[in-house]
Every structure is written in C-alpha cells, then in structure tokens.
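Each record in this resource describes a single protein on a pair of labelled lines. An example record follows, reproduced without changes.
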Amino acid sequence: MSEDLMMRMKPEHEIVLDHALEVQVTRMTKRFGSFTALDDVSMHVTAGSFHALLGENGAGKSTLVKCLVGFYEPTAGQISVDGRERTIHSPHDSHALGIGMVYQHFTLVPSMTAAENLVMSRTHVPAIINWRQERARLAAFMDTVPFKVPLEKPVSQLAAGEKQKLEILKQIYLNRCFMILDEPTSVLTPSEADEVLGMLRDMTRANKVTILMITHKFREVMAFADAASVLRRGKLTGEGRIADLAPGKLAEMMVGSRDIPQAHGTKAGTATEEPRLSVRKLYVEDDTGLPAVEDFSIDVCPGEIVGIAGVSGNGQRELVEALIGQRVPVSGSVHVNGKPYSASRGEIRLHRAFSLPEEPLRNACVPSMSVAENMALRNFDQAPLASGIWLRSGAMLEQAQRWIGEFKVKTQGADALIGTLSGGNVQRAVLARELSESVSVLIVANPVFGLDFAAVAEIHDRILAARNAGAAVLLVSEDLDELLELSDRLLVIFDGRIVHETPTAKADISVIGPCMAGHAGTSAAPAGSSNTAETH
C-alpha cells in the first residue's frame, strides 16, 4: 500500500503505519488469583511472517493474545513492538500500535452494509459522514487489497466466507499491521480457507502485515505458516520454523510426554456385557454441509468410559450433537440398549440416556429460566412434579433444593436465574439433573473446560461414580490428561474418523500425538472392535 494512499486514508488523529510489525513477548506470566494461565512464556514473531500459535484446549493461547490486544495486563513480562518495549493497558493502546485481532465469531453489524461497517469501525468518525467521499476512499482502498467483498450489500446477506474476508479487510482498513487471527477458517469451506490464507500469506511476503494465527488445523499450519509456537498448560513447549517441523512433532509438543495420571475415584472392574451404546457408520455434516463425521462406528459397554481424543475441530462437536439430538445425521445408525435411538425426549427418558454437552448454559439450559425450572426439564411433566396437566411448583422447588445441596450448587436460591451462576455451578446443576436418577448411557463433552481445580475434581468424581454404577459413558474431550485419567479405552479422532484405538492402560503418547495430527503409523482397526484391541 503506497504511502500517499495511506495518508489519504488516514482518519484524523490516527498514526499510519506502512510496514509489517515485529512483536516480541518476553517472560510473560499471567495469573488469575492462584491460577497461572501463562507461565514465563517468550515468543518472537518476526515482521512479515505468518506465525502459528498452537496448543490444546486451555493451553493459554487466548490469554496470551488477550494480553497482546489489551484485554488483560500481564502479571509479569514485557511486550516489544518493532524493538521498543510497550505497555498495553487496553485495546485502544494495541490499536494505536497497529495490533488488531480477527475473532472466531463475527463482530460485524448485520443490518449495516459492508461499507458502513468499515467506516463506523474507525476510532474517530465525524458526526456527519460525507458518504460520497467515504465511498471514493473505500474504492481506492479496495484496489490495494486482495479481498473482494460487495461493499453495498448488508452484512446479513453475505456468505460466511465474505464475512470472514470483511473482518480481515476491516483490520487492514484500520491500519493493523500485526494481525491476530483466532481460528479464522472455522466457518469456511476448505477452498475458501485456502483462498483467504493464501492471500494473507502473500501480504506477509510483501511485508504489508504480520500474521499470528491461533488454529487447530495442522494442514493449514503446514501449508501457510512460516513458524510456530506451541503452548501446553500455560508454558511454551516448543517453537521453530515449519520447514523443520513435521505435524507429528508439533502434536508431540502439544500433548507432551507424561505418565498416565491417577483418577480421583476408584474405577470398577472391566466391562464385559453387551454394548449399551452402539454407533454404526455414522455420517454427519457440519454447518456448511461438508462432512464432519464419516464412517464412524463405536461400542460403549456398561461400566466403562470410552474416551474420544483429538485436536479441536475434527468432528467432535458434530458427533456429540448428533448423539444427543441436536443435529440430524445424514446416514448411519445409533442404538441404545439394542433399540434404534434418535434422542427424542421419549427415547431419552425410556433408555435413561443423559448428557452433559459442551457449554451447558447454551446447549443444556434455558438461561432465562430459574435453577429449579432448568433442573426440572427432564421430569417436569411427571409425578411428583406434575399432577395431570398441572405443574406443582412447590415440588419443583423441593427437588431443586435437594439437588442443590447434594451437588453443592452455589446459587442465591432455587428461583435464581441459572444464567447468573458461574460456569462450574451451571455444570453442577446440569449434572444434578442428568445424574440424580439411574443412568444407562452418559454422553459427556469437555465437561470441565474453564473450571477451577475443585470443580474439576468433583465433576470427574461424578462421572466415575456413574460409570461405576453401571453406566456406559462416552467422554469427548480436548484435554488428553482428562481422557487418560478417566477412560478405560481411548480412541483418537482425526478428520471425522477414528484413526487409533487402545486400552488406556496401554496408551502410548508417542503414538497418540502423531495420530491426533493425522499421521497414524498404520491403519487403525475398525472402531467398535473388541474392547481390548490396540492399533498403531
């Protein structure tokens, strides 16, 4: 972008930069009370590079970039921009330095046009906008960038790929020469992702912008990134040039080398009965209509926990949604207790197949309803909570108060809105509803993400107790330690397919890591095979 054009585009009072920025983080630590989210992390992102930031769920990636953009202030450490140490107290400070972020979820105003979104995103917007002049400036701007988006179209009418391009265009328009991308291709088709990332890579090579991309897609890292840094549990575990790193090595940095952790509770014996949950050749599409889960088969027996490991975005969300009735599979079959199962309310009650989905406040609760009402969602129309067509509010409150005590739910009362509870207490409330009666099948997804250690231990114990009482438990988690701690059998999912299966007692991290990256040594055995099968 020419200096003349940059000056003509310059909003009043804003500093204009015309080159890619170098950013260096030195010994950064961020604590939240007694919890250390980042621990002495150093990272160097060279000017004009395309740098990938990798790590498991909860590794500290979001905390690091939030320190860079001013949402958090680090407890210790320094941030340098173009060789000068800077203090970033707020997003305004990071923007002034040329640092911007494209978030995983769109931040555009749907009712406004693309042009209006760009102009109104500036720090300083005149009270009266000369739209003729603004459109002329935008036309000149669009001639300098590789992304083409219809500027006069309302955002609500744009396709997902166009919205993502507009989010990136907004950062370029606002003169952000160091751009942080948070899972930028999660809503794009593979061809759209390649187009967008290819254009951004070209801009880095022209030294117009520096890219720091949080992603879980190894294919995109290998195809577009120049370098990578890997975090695990708040620490930097590895970094290097992509040319020197294989996907298996990156996965090894993510999962590390560790002993199999000890479970909080005592596990019962090995499951020997017929499968209680059987999935055969399941095919599920994602939100864009592309395959997310393919040819997926699995058996889960009474008294066992089967864990599904994998890097985020390999079909786990779509799999869980299909199993709990929130997404309709394209093909395949699910059986519970030998009967066809589609997760209707009647089938859930008949087969006692309960679930704890990811983000339970959004996926398992009605935030505007009370704790008592949410706890009664499974049995509000049954005695003693109902008498004929009448609901008995007193019985509903009595049930909630009992479960609040048993599951240690911290709330101002049973009539408090469940949306006012902390994440851990929402989890406890949902567990109370799902586990307070006999459970045949339990489907759990990332049950302790973002929770404190006490809540983690308690929820893990509840899951183990259900398993020991004879439930067949399917545990889908992006936390490998959690899976190794709780599971009897471990399967690895990649690109919607099972690529590895092993008894947890024989789990080999050096095998699991490459499988998570899609580099299994040999073909995996068919999922749903013998409980003791181990494939490499």
Observations:
- The first strand starts at residue 23 and ends at 32.
- The first helix runs from residue 3 to 9.
- Residues 364-437 form one domain.
